[in-house]
Design brief:
N-(1-d-carboxylethyl)-l-norvaline Dehydrogenase, domain 2, about 400 residues, KPA_reductase, four-stranded mixed sheet, alpha/beta, 2-dehydropantoate 2-reductase
Length: about 400
């Protein structure tokens, strides 16, 4: 075989290796993850989708729900099925492809033994070590690094990871803890979901309470600035972005890395006011609107937040930053959001009451870190607010740990 033909054959093989399968994996099936998976299944031509379940108990719940995701809108359930599932057990992922005939029988109500099927499938299923091309991560910021660590061996430098969560600074943490070698890192995307979503009592079911938007784009962190040109994006990034923006239910739009970061910072500013104040004071979002003392604390927080954002080195040269992130405009945005969600309890307050780790380190904590590390600014009000939430969180955990069980005869 001639050298030219051999090179052509090798090039063809490399092209085959790089060809995308189109499969999308989803890690985290809370409100956002369930909504995205359901939206993909609602397309006329759904992409192959794999749900990543992080323990066998969650798999048992999946079987009990007859392998369906449901979204309730206007009182009606829209049920979708057809998902492949990977289950993590003992550090190993087990693959369960969707089988249309058998699963249709289960949906139609034919009897099945859940415990038997779970045990049998985990022991007899194939171990899934296939690489992941497109991964959507919808877990909360504090557990993102741990969640990604379980699948890092399946990610390559050609993979794209889309992060859908509140707060900022997660990518820097992932790079430090999960992908310290820049040569092995996947490509990152981030997104902001503003749809109204509420969890229902049963797992894998949510309520869609209000239509919003989904803003997506390649990520820009403090330590890496990707190209603004789409021509330079990875094939998996282009595919994932195109697929999601063409999914009607998501109402998704694509933005450049710098534009996406501006939207993220706006949401960060609003969440850094409403979430910690409601968590510390144990009140609804609307209670912040008519309290003079709340408005004084809000003003001090926003002065620091505005100063840090306007001085971030990665935003220098972008026109209109000072007016877009002025304390007055940020205060107006906070007031609008608090008014719109007046009867809601913030996610941070719910986390504190349930003894869960909050996202405070990725909200006010992010402002404190960027201010001190990159700008030499001491954000004392945000620092105090961060520790008030941390102390509230710690007290909640201590009360739960110290609770004495009482048997009622």
């Amino acid at each position: 075989m001639s050298t030219w033909m051999q090179n052509a054959e090798e090039a063809s093989q490399d092209s085959e290796k790089r060809r995308l399968s189109g499969r999308i994996h989803i890690l985290g099936l809370g409100n956002v993850g369930t909504f995205v998976a359901h939206s993909l299944a609602s397309r006329l031509s759904p992409p192959p989708t794999t749900l990543l379940l992080h323990n066998p108990d969650l798999h048992r719940s999946w079987l009990a729900r007859k392998k369906c995701l449901a979204i309730n809108s206007n009182g009606l359930d829209d049920v979708k099925t057809g998902f492949d599932v990977d289950v993590l057990d003992g550090g190993t992922w087990h693959s369960f492809p969707y089988q249309e005939k058998e699963d249709a029988a289960e949906i139609n109500g034919e009897p099945m033994s859940l415990d038997h099927e779970t045990e049998e499938s985990l022991t007899e299923s194939e171990q899934d070590g296939d690489r992941i091309e497109c991964l959507i991560v919808a877990v909360k910021a504090p557990v993102t690094a741990m969640a990604l660590d379980s699948v890092k061996h399946r990610l390559t430098p050609d993979s794209t990871v889309l992060l859908l969560q509140n707060g900022m600074g997660v990518i820097d943490e992932i790079n430090e803890k999960v992908f310290p070698d820049p040569q092995t890192r996947p490509h990152y995307m981030q997104g902001i979901v503003s749809h109204g979503l509420a969890r229902r009592k049963e797992p894998f079911q949510i309520a869609h309470t209000g239509i919003g938007t989904t803003i997506l784009g390649p990520a820009m962190s403090a330590t890496s600035t990707p190209s603004e040109s789409e021509a330079d994006w990875a094939p998996s990034t282009k595919y994932l972005l195109r697929t999601l923006t063409l999914t009607p239910s998501l109402v998704a739009v694509a933005e450049t890395p710098s534009s996406l970061m501006l939207y993220q910072l706006e949401k960060l500013a609003m969440n850094s006011i409403i979430n910690p104040l409601t968590a510390v004071m144990n009140c609804k979002n609307g209670d912040l609107l008519y309290n003079y003392s709340f408005t004084r604390v809000m003003r001090l927080l926003l002065l620091e937040i505005s100063s840090v954002i306007c001085a971030l080195p990665e935003l220098q040269g972008i026109p209109g930053i000072e007016s877009r992130f002025s304390p007055e405009r940020l205060r107006w945005m906070v007031t609008q959001l608090a008014s719109k969600t007046a009867e809601n309890h913030s996610s941070m307050l719910q986390d504190v009451l349930s003894g869960k780790t909050t996202e405070i380190e990725y909200l006010n904590g992010y402002i404190v870190r960027r201010g001190e590390k990159d700008l030499g600014l001491k954000c004392v009000v945000n620092y105090m607010m961060k520790h008030l939430v941390l102390s509230k969180q710690q007290n909640s955990k201590q009360r739960e740990a110290g609770a004495i069980p009482i048997d009622i005869l």
